[in-house]
Amino acid sequence: MKRKINEFQERAWLKTEHGLRRLCGKPSPVKRLVAVLVACGVLAAANIYFTVNSIYSIGKRDAETELMKLQHIRQLKMENGELKMEDLQIKNNDEYECR
Asked: Does pTM top 0.85 for this prediction?
């Protein structure tokens, strides 16, 4: 399997090299420099795009998680100025579930 992968890589490299030589002939130093700079520019732009997009996605997911946990403060029910213990306990119903 490893041998087949190596053969595939070698054939792909030779085809790419042959295609570039056929396209450019024997490239002058200026053509080579331009080709290298264009390739670096395209790859750098792709790298920046993927990095910024990943950071944005991470921040977006974290913000959604934090927003789900936020709830409004509810007023406690008091009778005669005293708190009841059942008012202080968290109840398992739909009113308290995160959405």
From this structure: no
